[in-house]
Amino acid sequence: MSGQVKTGQKRATVVDVARLAGVSPGTVSNALSGKRRVDEETRARIDSAVRELGYVPNMAARGMRTGRANTIALFSSMATAVAAGPSKLGFLMEIAGSAALTALSRNVALVLVPPIRDPEAALRNVPFDGALLVEPTRDDPFLALLAARDVPTVAIGEAHGAVSAHVDLNYAQTADLLIDHLLNVGSRNFPLLIGTGARRYYEVFEARYRQRAAQVGMTPAVLRIDEAEGEAGAARSVARHLAAHPETDGLLVPLDAQATGAMEALRQAGLSVPGEVRVATRYDGLRARAETPALTAVDLQLDTVAATATNALLDLVEGMECRAHFASPLPRLVVRGSTEG
Amino acid sequence: MSGQVKTGQKRATVVDVARLAGVSPGTVSNALSGKRRVDEETRARIDSAVRELGYVPNMAARGMRTGRANTIALFSSMATAVAAGPSKLGFLMEIAGSAALTALSRNVALVLVPPIRDPEAALRNVPFDGALLVEPTRDDPFLALLAARDVPTVAIGEAHGAVSAHVDLNYAQTADLLIDHLLNVGSRNFPLLIGTGARRYYEVFEARYRQRAAQVGMTPAVLRIDEAEGEAGAARSVARHLAAHPETDGLLVPLDAQATGAMEALRQAGLSVPGEVRVATRYDGLRARAETPALTAVDLQLDTVAATATNALLDLVEGMECRAHFASPLPRLVVRGSTEG
DNA sequence: GGGTGCAGTTAAAACGTTTTAATGGTCACA
DNA sequence: TGTGACCATTAAAACGTTTTAACTGCACCC
């Protein structure tokens, strides 16, 4: 009997509980939320009524009253996510797992909003009190929509637009790590491949690359490839570059989808990796590890990053003050077969 | 001006829109939802009022009235997920991505409930109108909780308990695929490693393994390892088996975390893979691909499986009739270095 | 005895939407 | 002219909480 609810029966409400316990609904609410003192004996009566009726609070009603959804949303910038396909999803999912765990430890659920054609529809149908935005582009459609909704937003990775806060992804250090590594293993002629989108980390990578190239006397070559062309686009671009520059002995390809494309081009050209050409990429995900040889990459410690971002967002949602900028653990180089023989 | 909302300003409601458009709130609701006919001219007035005020419907209020949260939850059986760590998360995340996409295409968001200590608290604070349950164990704590809440539940993988429906993960075919493959590449003495938990797919794997072993005259050996001991437990168990059975020339290890543990044991024993011992696992995820040599595994087509499950669940939520059992695309063997030289 | 303060409780309002039943108007048909 | 059907609209109720302000007793203090 007790605790059981028959199928189809209407769920018990706070008034049912109140009636059974012989108190008013307000007292039940106070007893359950603990917001006000309730007599010990009354509380006991309420508790047993709750158990007997199998009462579960109606979240929608609570949300309407309190104005909170107990939910945060994780968005990924549409364009790239689609373009980079599974790789970007890996990146996103790694963040999602950690963010969900952190959020739930604070009694908030994470809703996952994958890249989708119509961001506006997604926003409209999903209740949430805060948003996590993964590496937004300069003109990210979500930025405007979230701003219009006046909802706290935390970006993962440096953001151009107006966000409440952002967690650093250490673009500069990551770039330096990879560039210095390529130099250390002896590469002296390696181009940088980046996408054409307005991503902050492209800008940073390019800046560091050019600076370092100038220092060591390397002629810089920056190949820009539309992200939407995926692996194939990168392969074509690299093939062209190899033909024009046979002295090439390395490739710096931050976007992993483009990195595997580049590997394909190298195979076609009959060049050995890492013997003749060394290759390094940024995100140490499935693509990087599944390539043969596996690609040297960087451990961005996304779980820590996501936890930091989530906690910051929840602080904001709860109305606490919060810094506008959070540092991340320093990225660590993960050396693999593609740069060491 | 239009479409702009100043920060801190209270959000416009349907009443504000109604007043501005000179109609009643009910008409606004009808115009927006399209549930009833509304004169073309009034609809236009309402639309422009909506734009001017930057009106966004309050989901909580709508949810309270309609009884729908526009949300489904994805749960993963607690014990295993924790035990198998990142590998299980990979599995879960692959499903999550596809489920989220499918759900969103039907205007429903996916909330991600990662393995957590207190499942009951998770359930209480998260509003959802349906649940997706990944490979529940026989006594899965979520099963009871979801049943008590009387919420439609769809399991991914055969389920023991009471769920509204389940989508097959083709345990038998998967087992056959792997067993036959090991036999085909010449293995004649390979034990089966499985966990101790009450998972349906352990039972099926064991049954098929014993049957096939009897057919080909192989002495069956089933090693059961507590999932909670992870890689190390599997490594110890395999080391022991190898010492007692030097004739071992293969390993069938469905759980990928245990498979990588087994690989470690083989390395320690100085046995070459695939030369002396062939290894096969089930889930073709990061662990399988990142191992050296990469592990032969099975493509379970989780994206299709997740999409099927999600659509079934949403049908149930919308009150449609729905089959209790869905087939999945047949699993395909992915042959890798661990079984072919 | 009249005020003050406190602790526990309550009645009623409020949150913002959807839905129901009722309303007035127009049109076609007898 | 009356009758019914239909259409667009509306007023009001309903959803299930939380919160506010009021209200009890009751003890304590001048």
UniProtKB/TrEMBL annotation, chains A, B:
GO terms for molecular function: DNA-binding transcription factor activity; transcription cis-regulatory region binding. It holds the Pfam family Peripla_BP_3. PROSITE patterns: HTH_LACI_1, HTH_LACI_2. Gene3D superfamilies: 3.40.50.2300, lambda repressor-like DNA-binding domains. InterPro entries: HTH_LacI, LacI/GalR-like_sensor, Lambda_DNA-bd_dom_sf, Peripla_BP_I. It comes from the Bacteria. This is LacI family transcriptional regulator. Residues 12-66 form the HTH lacI-type domain. Keywords: DNA-binding, Repressor, Transcription, Transcription regulation.
